[in-house]
Structure formats: structure tokens, C-alpha cells
Design goal:
The protein is 70% helix and 0% strand. The chain is mainly α.
Length: 354
């Protein structure tokens, strides 16, 4: 179902298949018995060259994803898949920053990570549908007693159980873990030379520009498809801010928190879109047309509220022109780098005899 409301317009080579890639011993995944691999924070350090820094972050996230997928059957199944998918998304966002500098590696690694995430997405999506029904019920307590909620949730629970059983039988997480090991080896050998800000500058501008553009599209046509496209760009922006937050932690951590909040709002909106599509397409007698119509109408009301809350955040996050945004972060980064090197006072202390 499409939302027709309008918002005010103000403010803004690898040619060989991966199955033939050998995994170097020093790059193999060392998953812990629990599958919960400990990683450093998802951030770059001003004192490290950006090429090796992004490589380090990628290795941490991709190892974490592989470990969780490998041990999914030993721990909370859906939680393990969820955490692995988050690491995959963070890895793809980090790769995007380096895209102009790593050549053909980007296309191969990005497509592999995308396909790995999709291979296990149905497990997580089935659980999200059930929780979305619960959230919708909690949002409208005056309708909480409606039997439509119970019928739809019961059917979605059964469907989710079937999805998980099939994934266990086909060992989908284990297959995904093996693919993660191989793409990790591929990325580890990429061109990650000693580079400064120029390693990410062009792509940071472009990614921010994409975020602004997708925001404009969502304002023009706040349908499920355009809002979802904006959500993906917002999530990338959040991850990029997290990567660079050590440039000026008090400022960028707060901005990243705002981006996270916006990503959550748009994620909730997308979950409702998926629920509406499921209600319309997959009834098969498991719920009535009246059930579908009732929940879909509530979902539309909730989507409007979520978007009304999201738009002001979007205007603030994407208020700058891309060049100004990237230049500002570059100046923050260079100041943090100089401070880490003991040059934070720019020589002023020595000049006044301190």
C-alpha cells in the first residue's frame, strides 16, 4: 500500500570463482567455541593509514560474521544470523568508502557479501514479521484485543518455524560461513597500501550525495520502495560516521547516534511495508481478507507517523552540500591525526615558550 501524503520541501578482478581462492593460514577465521568473536570497535584510528585501517575493520567484521554463522546451531539461531548480517552490512559500507581506491576488488567482494547476506535473510525476516505484528499491536492498544492479531501472528509463527527447519536441514548458515571465509581471504590480499584521506575522499562525497538524493526522492514519493532506498543510504551514512568518529568523538558520536535513530525509524517503516505485502500476497486461508485489511490500515497509519518523525532528522543529517560535508570531516580527521602525533597545538606552545 502506497502512502500518498507529501512532506513540506525545505532544506535539502578477480576473474576466478571464489571456490578456487585458497585461504592463507594467517587469514583463516579463528572463531571461538561460542561463535561470538570479539572484535575491536567499528572505527578507524587517526594515527593509522586509511587503507590498512579499512582493511583491519573489514577483517574484524568479516571474521565475526563467519564465526557467528559457523556456530549458529550452537547458540540462538536467529540472533546469530541477525548479528552476522549486521557485520556483513558494515563490511559493505566500509568497502564503499574505499571503492575508487581498490579497483576491481570492490565489485567482486561487494557482490559476494550481498549474496551471502541474502542467502540467510529469510531466517531473520521470518522472525521480524512476527515482532512487527507485536509492535503494531502495542502501538494501538485500543485495538489490542482484536483477534486478527492472533490469527496473523499464529500463521507467521508457523511459517517462521518452517523457514528455520529448512535452513537447518540445508545447513545454510554453514554454507554462508564458508563463503565468508573465502571472501575474507580475497579482501585481505587487496590493494590496501599506505594512504591518507585521499583514499576515501571521493567516495565519502559521493555516498553523502547519494543520501541527499535518496532523501529528496522519498520526499517526492514516500512509497515503500523509495523510503527503503533512502533507508539503505542512511544506514551507510551511519556506518561511515561510526568509522570516522574518532576524528572528533563529542561531535561525530552524537551525529552517528542521530543517524542510528533515523535508520531505526526507517527500518520499522520498511518492516511494516513487508508485513503489508505479506498480508496481501500470502494469505492462503491462514487469515481472512478482513484480517489483512485491518492490519494493513493500522500499518499505514503507523508508517505515516514514523515518516513524520524521520523527515526532520533527515533534514539535519543531510543539510550540507557533499563537498562541505567531506571537507569538514577531512579537517576534523587531520586535526585528530596531528593531535595523536603530538602536534595538536600547531607549534603555538613552543612559540610562546611553554
Amino acid at each position: 500500500m502506497k502512502i500518498t501524503a507529501r512532506f513540506p520541501r525545505k532544506g535539502p578482478g578477480f576473474a576466478r570463482p571464489l571456490s578456487h581462492v585458497a585461504i592463507p593460514r594467517d587469514e583463516e577465521i579463528q572463531a571461538r567455541d561460542t561463535g561470538k568473536v570479539c572484535c575491536m570497535a567499528f572505527e578507524l584510528e587517526p594515527q593509522e593509514p586509511l587503507g590498512p585501517g579499512i582493511r583491519r575493520v573489514l577483517m574484524e567484521e568479516m571474521r565475526d560474521a563467519a564465526g557467528r554463522l559457523e556456530h549458529a546451531s550452537e547458540i540462538d539461531w536467529t540472533e546469530a544470523v541477525h548479528e552476522a548480517r549486521k557485520s556483513i552490512k558494515k563490511s559493505r559500507a566500509a568497502l564503499r568508502l574505499a571503492r575508487p581506491s581498490i579497483g576491481s576488488l570492490y565489485g567482486r567482494a561487494n557482490s559476494e557479501l550481498r549474496d551471502i547476506g541474502r542467502s540467510v535473510s529469510e531466517v531473520r525476516d521470518a522472525q521480524v514479521l512476527v515482532s512487527t505484528v507485536d509492535q503494531l499491536r502495542n502501538t494501538f492498544p485500543e485495538h489490542a484485543g482484536a483477534e486478527s492479531f492472533d490469527r496473523v501472528k499464529r500463521a507467521l509463527d508457523e511459517r517462521g518455524g518452517s523457514v528455520i527447519r529448512r535452513a537447518r536441514e540445508e545447513q545454510l548458515p554453514l554454507q554462508a560461513a564458508e563463503r565468508m571465509r573465502r571472501v575474507t581471504a580475497l579482501v585481505a590480499r587487496g590493494p590496501w597500501g599506505e594512504h591518507g584521506w585521499e583514499f576515501i575522499d571521493a567516495r565519502l562525497r559521493r555516498e553523502y550525495r547519494r543520501g541527499r538524493s535518496s532523501f529528496e526522492d522519498a520526499l517526492d514519493d514516500p512509497s515503500g520502495e523509495t523510503v527503503h532506498a533512502w533507508r539503505k543510504r542512511v544506514k551507510d551514512h551511519w556506518y561511515h560516521l561510526r568509522l570516522l568518529r574518532q576524528a572528533w568523538p563529542p561531535v561525530l558520536k552524537r551525529t552517528a547516534k542521530m543517524a542510528h535513530s533515523l535508520s531505526d525509524l526507517l527500518g520499522d517503516e520498511h518492516d511494516l511495508v513487508v508485513l503489508q505485502a505479506t498480508l496481501e500476497e500470502e494469505a492462503d486461508g491462514r487469515w481472512t481478507p478482513d484480517d489483512a485489511r485491518f492490519l494493513s490500515e493500522l500499518a499505514t497509519r503507523r508508517r505515516v507517523d514514523l515518516l513524520a518523525e524521520a523527515v526532520p532528522l533527515g533534514r539535519r543529517l543531510f543539510a550540507e552540500k557533499p563537498g562541505r560535508f567531506a571537507s569538514r570531516l577531512r579537517r576534523y580527521w587531520e586535526a585528530a591525526r596531528d593531535e595523536a602525533a603530538g602536534l595538536g597545538d600547531g607549534g603555538l606552545a613552543a612559540a610562546v615558550g611553554i
